[in-house]
Write a structure and sequence with these properties.
79% helix, globular, mainly alpha
Length: 413
């Protein structure tokens, strides 16, 4: 596969050879754990959200801003943490981020009002974003070739597992503690990851490979990335496919329970089935992209996601039975899982010198596109599935169109 370098006018140094650094299992485990920061922060406290709303004497819509605030923090935090990690190394920003995450989790637990909680959740998202971006960038520091693709496949699997076990753990915690106890549990998770990072995580970005310069240099790095159609295509594909995922997370519960009459247990089964598909197909994707083709695997995943999203739209318009929406959701979610490892690899593999900055734009696309898509699902009320189908289909179609950017960059290389 022919490598393409940075544009001739770039001010930053060109891609350096991938480092030949041994990666032990403890480091691989810590890097994997870092990627669950975002999902577990989002999912774990959802079962106690109604109790939180009642105790803080809030409305449902205001309480849901605690989710929006965390999403915004996760998006913005990656744009800040990525360039900082390219300049100061991975370890120092990681340690600061994990400490901040632990402290803000405690502040969430102590929040006297919903307004205080919303602010604390935003900062918690900012801090949690550090773990996500460092996991991607450090992986690029220590892996290359097929190992890099497999690594991003593992991150996809872990994200799916976090989505499965987060609400389950939150539900079990709700049986023995209140919502404040759930946030204290998140603080305990932060302490555990902090200890693991201090003991295991060694600096993966040597001093001689770090970026020097201030804000103007960072802006030049962003311009360098955004001038690369391959990179932009991979980022847009990631953003649009995750918009479909966030539409699913936002709207599926109302449709499956409110319209199709599933019990909470039935919805949990459907949710678990889709998450299982995300895990399995994320694992398969990493292997497939390594042995076949990154772009071919990406095209296959986009075809699956689009087919599933169009199935959702058809189900909404034609009032098809439950099995149709279950199969459509499974196909769409699994398709997004297939796209994730090759899209991440295509975006980052040519930029080992600014992997943190490149990772930050991927994370920004995931959470900002998702955050914009989620409220559109309920624009006509909880009992109308058509907006859900339209948002999912439009997002998947837009992602498929962006595949042309990836191919065009390849042709020009």
């Amino acid at each position: 596969m022919t490598a393409t370098g940075a544009p001739a006018h770039a001010t930053a140094p060109g891609p350096a050879p991938a480092p030949k650094q041994a990666v032990g299992r403890p480091l691989a485990v810590v890097l994997g754990l870092l990627t669950i920061f975002g999902p577990i922060s989002m999912d774990l406290y959802l079962p106690v959200l109604p109790a939180l709303t009642a105790e803080l004497r809030s409305t449902t819509s205001v309480a849901q801003l605690t989710i929006t605030a965390c999403l915004l923090g996760l998006a913005i935090g990656q744009v800040v943490a990525g360039p900082l990690s390219d300049r100061f190394g991975r370890r120092k920003p990681l340690i600061i981020g994990v400490i901040a995450y632990t402290v803000t989790s405690v502040l969430c637990a102590l929040s006297p009002t919903v307004e205080t909680l919303i602010l604390a959740r935003f900062v918690q998202g900012l801090a949690g974003a550090v773990g996500i971006v460092i996991a991607q960038a450090a992986g690029r520091d220590v892996y290359s070739g097929g190992k890099l693709i497999r690594y991003y496949g593992r991150l996809t699997v872990l994200g799916g597992l976090a989505a499965i076990i987060g609400p389950v753990i939150g539900g079990q915690l709700a049986a023995v503690t209140d919502w404040r106890g759930v946030f204290l549990f998140l603080a305990a998770v932060g302490v555990a990851i902090l200890v693991a990072s201090l003991v295991v995580f060694r600096e993966t970005l040597p001093q001689d490979r770090r970026i020097t310069g201030g804000l103007s240099h960072t802006l030049n790095d962003f311009r360098r990335l955004l001038a690369d159609r391959m990179f932009v295509g991979a980022v847009l594909i990631t953003g649009f496919t995750y918009a479909a995922i966030f539409a699913y997370l936002s709207g599926a519960t109302y449709i499956l329970q409110g319209m199709y009459g599933l019990s909470p247990q039935g919805y949990s089964f459907a949710f678990g089935l889709n998450s299982l598909g995300f895990v399995i197909f994320g694992f398969i994707s990493g292997r497939l992209a390594e042995h076949w083709s990154e772009r071919g695997t990406l095209a296959l995943g986009l075809a699956m996601a689009l087919a599933g999203a169009l199935g959702l739209l058809a189900t909404a318009l034609l009032h098809l039975p439950l099995i149709a929406i279950i199969l459509s959701l499974f196909t769409m979610v699994s398709g997004v899982a297939v796209t994730s490892p090759p899209a991440t690899s295509l975006a980052l593999k040519e930029y080992p010198d600014i992997a943190g900055t490149a990772s930050s734009l991927l994370g920004l696309a995931r959470f900002s596109f998702g955050g914009l898509a989620a409220p559109l699902v309920g624009i006509c009320g909880a009992n109308d599935p058509v907006p859900f189908g339209i948002v999912a289909a439009a997002a998947a179609a837009a992602a498929a169109l962006c595949l042309g950017l990836v191919r065009r960059r390849r042709d020009l290389g």
